[in-house]
Amino acid sequence: MKRKHIATWLLAIALTGCSKDFLTVVPETALSSATFFKTEADFQQAVNGAYQPLRQIFNERAWVLEEMHSDNTYYARNTLYGAVDPTENVADFAVPTANGVTANDNVLVQYRLNYVIISRANQILSLIDGAGIAFASEASKNNLKGQALFLRAFCYFDLVRLFGKVPLHLVPITGREDAALPLATTDAIYAQIEKDALAASTALPNKATQEAGRATSGAAKTLLANLYITQKKWAQAETILKAVVANDGYALMPDYNDAFSFTSTNKNNKESIFEIQYMEGSAGYNGNQIYRFLPSPISATEIAPIVGTSNPQPTSQESNNIPTPDLIAAYEAGDKRKDISIGTITLSGSLRANKTYPYIKKYARPHSLNQNTGQNWPVYRYAEVLLFLAESLNEQGKTGEAAPYINQVRARAGLAATTASAQADMREAVFKERRVELAFENKRWFDLTRTGRVKEIIGAYGAKVKANPAAYYFPAGAVPPPNAFTVLDDYYGLPAVEAALTPNF
């Protein structure tokens, strides 16, 4: 009977022939772009799906590539855990790179997840204007379109700052041939980010009327300002940042600790411009960053006060994102942010002579379930807008106008007004203020690259690590690998796995 059905099916194909219409028929029961995008709710669901990879990016990889790859954090070597891994290579500035590509898996995953979001945004943008469906309103349609534009711009901004040149996909891929595009120039990628962010800034509603957690006009403008600052387009950055300050309703939370969400409260607060949404529980929307960051081996008794769970579990792992002595020393006396951002813990099972370690306290929010957290990850906060504005004004020679913006940030931290009055002094003051205000928010690496200070700062930092490994959390007899701090490039190599799929890398 089965053979008869197969034969009949093959005969039907033969009789029908290979017409174009036959080959492009999509089964009505299959979920595809041809059958799915029929209602506004479908586009809403697609936009929701475009945000989804951000949770993995910020839970697993962004902090490796953009924070541990700096002088802010390092790893705590646990010789009981095993050999050096790809994350340590990033922290050690020793990512194996040849002919512009690397096999490092952190690089690969970050690259691919960004393109997952881009591909989903492209699908939405390619169909939404010609969908032929009735949206609740033009504003509703623009909101969905604006979110897709923002997400595409956001991901290309991450990619261009990590790699310099990447393929610029702006329409859905239909076949193997258009999947392997040439590398676009940095300037071409910047131009597309600007175009998308500008369009998003006018299409999106502001925070007061947008659903919590979604991109807003303020988020798009802040992304655009970040782009202009990276390009050193100071006047354009000033204009857009002043619009955010004047019109978008943000404000500093009075207490620095309250700028960051708890596992189920204080999310998307008045200081938050854009943050990655997590939810504790079994639905699959949770994070577990703090468990990745804690020094180890840590006992259940030692971890309990940090995580607050009813069933604390010990861990024995390679510990990452440990605050460096350099960062700890960067806080001024009396800075309230230090004790909010960084805690200390003594590990009875540590192989170090000094068993005391710092850890990232501002993400250590009490929660119920082991390895299951719900606090959101801050991407853009109003404090950064103020520091961006101070920097943009100062770089135009308006140092006096810059001071009030940096001083707002300092005042909340319990610090006196900056004493910087000359342009060079203010430049350094803003650079240092960004380091402590935005510590552990994946900003430091990009601050080093855009200011051209990688070799200067990381070179000196690496020399200290190699000269005194014990101060950087190595147990007795353990040292950084011989190739540590030898790859001081502004960009990562492109993923080797992707290079094998294209002639253009």
From TrEMBL:
Q: List residues of the RagB/SusD domain.
A: 340-475
First-listed, main subcellular location of the protein, grouped into a coarse class: membrane
Can you say where in the cell this protein is located?
Cell outer membrane
* Gene Ontology CC terms, in alphabetical order: cell outer membrane
State the UniProt keywords alphabetically: Cell outer membrane, Membrane, Signal
Specify the SusD-like N-terminal domain's residue ranges. 21-228
Q: Which InterPro entries match?
A: SusD-like_N, SusD_RagB_dom, TPR-like_helical_dom_sf
The family annotation for this protein states: Belongs to the SusD family.
Q: Under what name is this protein listed? A: RagB/SusD family nutrient uptake outer membrane protein
Name its species.
Spirosoma pollinicola
